[in-house]
Amino acid sequence: MKIYVPADSAALALGADDVAAAIMEQARARGLSVELVRNGTRGMIWLEPLVEVVMDGVRHGFGPATPDDAGAILDGTCAKALGPVDKLDWMQRQTRLTFARCGIIDPLSLSDYQAHGGLAGLKRAIAMGSADIVDEVTKSGLRGRGGAGFPTGIKWNTVLQAKAAQKYIVCNADEGDSGTFADRMIMEGDPFTLIEGMVIAGLGVDATRGYVYLRSEYPDAISVMTRAVEIARAAGVLGPDVLGSGRAFDLEIRKGAGAYVCGEETSLLNSLEGKRGVVRAKPPLPALEGFLGQPTVVNNVISLATVPVIFEKGAQFYADFGLGRSRGTVTLQIAGNVARGGLFETAFGMSLGDVVNDIAGGTASGRPVKAVQVGGPLGAYMPVSKFDTALGYEEFDAAGGLIGHAGLVVFDDSADMLRMARFAMEFCAVESCGKCTPCRIGAVRGVETIDRIAAGDGAAIPLLTDLCETMKDGSLCALGGFTPFPVMSALTHFPDDFARVKEAAE
Q1: Domains along the chain?
Q2: How far apart are CA 455 and CA 421, in angstroms?
Q3: Per residue, what are the HEC states of 336-357?
Q4: pTM, full prediction
Q5: What does the alpha-carbon distance between residue 41 and residue 12 come to, in Å, rounded to a whole number?
Q6: What is the pLDDT of residues 198-226, one digit of tens each?
Q7: Cβ within 8 Å of residue 456, ≥6 positions away
């Protein structure tokens, strides 16, 4: 009898270890032989812990399970039976490319990984020249999934063309945006796909060393990735002779120190070098002078974890999905006040309203949706009137928003948007590295200005608008430059939340 119980952080937080222990205890009491696999999550967080039992070759789900359900699950009498997991509506409606194996395999079984298509992309890349590898990524249309949406192929080509004795691949795993968890999910549920993607990147730009900069708040991901690197190295996937190709690539896991600003690539590089995590002025670009002053590819986890799919299936296969210049899939992380929160991978192009109302099922509170913040704490608050906006980089930009890391946090009509705008400024003030004046001073003045508005000083609204313009145009990085997005979207789309305070004061 084969049973899967996730060891993903979300499932663990909801009691998955206790459920797994109860299943094994009940199995022993019944004299049953059970093979327990601790997999990653399928992404349906409202059903976690999701227990899957293999019946006639099909995985049937039970959830959200508790230790008290263990006996009934083994007996086949559990009232929480969901049927075949792959047939559930949430799973059927997705286009799972990057997350195709997540929740399916044992995360630390390299043989399981290979049985589900793993390493096929790397084997193909090994037979290609560096320029051909970069060209394949360019043709796929893959863009950075960490926020900016910069074309991955252009970044790789810049590093490839740079002349240096040593080049580096750095994976930005400092996932700090509120409502985002895709990086953590893939690292805990399918770590070898990230490793494979980094090796292919190394072969493509002639880099032989790589680093995963992983946030300290993810101890489970750190543990899984560290072990996965050891397994990959022992199997020859990493090291001086990658899969017998004669080409070298190895990597290390480095733990961050909890600074949000280290999600910005140059601040991350400073931290990786053992320096204070402050933003560097650009130019020079990291692609030319990055880690230790050498040409460096800095990509997000999802960007690199998607590379094996492109090489296994082909660039055109990947490019055939999407909308406009947004090719492939977007890994939506649905959180906040929603009935069904979790990870949903789909081709670019679905409307924001369909995601919130249909996929997520509206609010958990049952109250009307008021706003959705897309793209983390620096993302704009999108009102219901913008719900026809298609999920695409250019489409969101035209609507005054940004997709960023594709986290969606939903709020119902009880949310106070003035308080949310204040939170954005306060967040920036706390997390600023202090390098530039617009961010360091502007965010503090922003909190003070919003407090004036809250006290009834409507004349401070033009001052807040002017301050946001200064921060947007003058900040060195996206922390200060993007903070105006949530502030100004709150002010623009929800003016009553600002005006009613003034009226109350009068």
Answers
A1: 2-85 (3.40.30.10), 110-319 (3.40.50.11540), 323-412 (3.10.20.600), 417-505 (1.20.1440.230)
A2: 15
A3: ECCCCCEEEEEECCCEHHHHHH
A4: 0.95
A5: 10
A6: 999 999 999 999 999 999 999 999 999 99
A7: 501, 502, 504, 505, 506
